Amino acid sequence: TCPIINTVHDLCFKYYQETFSLKSKLAFNYFFKQSLTISDAIICPSNFTKDSLINFYSVNPNKVFTIHEAADDFFKPIEDKNKIKALLLKKFGINNKYFLVVGNVDHRKQPHKIINAFNQLLKKNPNILLVFVGPNKLKIKSNKNIKILNYVHDDSLNFLYNGSIALIFLSLCEGFGLPIVEAMATKIPVICNDIPVFQEVADRSALFVKNEQKLYQAMKKVFENKNLRIKYSNLCYQRSQFFSWDKTAKETIKVYQRVLERKI
Fold it and tell me: Which among 230, 225, 227, 98 has a CA at the least distance from the CA of 166?
């Protein structure tokens, strides 16, 4: 009996159904299309999600709006490197250089491909680490070079970003890719899967990879080449300035106002 604004974060259940539980697939198949039909406006976090929605469900483009997400303000560069090292050692036992992976540890994020690429790099660099942050849904086991941290509070996550060589985000599908923007805001390089939504979010500021071997090569370059790290750190930080929750809020309010004024 009142106007409805629906936020659709992603359509990964359409692209990679095998990565979702039967319960989730049933819920999406039975209720998702209906939710679109009764919506007066739909907000998507990326043009990729918007285009996918229109393609799969023939939704009226005039009622779909792209509003990008952003990193929270506390994700920022920390200049005191000694402070970072001290906290990482005390809280997580990290005292070596490491690559960071943020998000659910599940099949869609391709953790095994990341581990395989990392193991190649490990042959000549036996002291480096690979650190996963997020629910360990695949029950991957830690060892002396791979740390599984599960959930980490955002304050600590900011330190983990700042202390890392680079973020690796190899997800097959996302609606936006929030860890990419968080990493960029902390001024660290990003290595991510070469898919349209990440190209939209990172633009030309990230290293894009198409397969496991390309991932290994990108990790090797970033690890060995300080100038390359500095280059992509600066590019990432510049790109991060494009996103802000203040901007997101203002654009969201505009959609609500249009719906209330019946201008859609």
Answer: 98
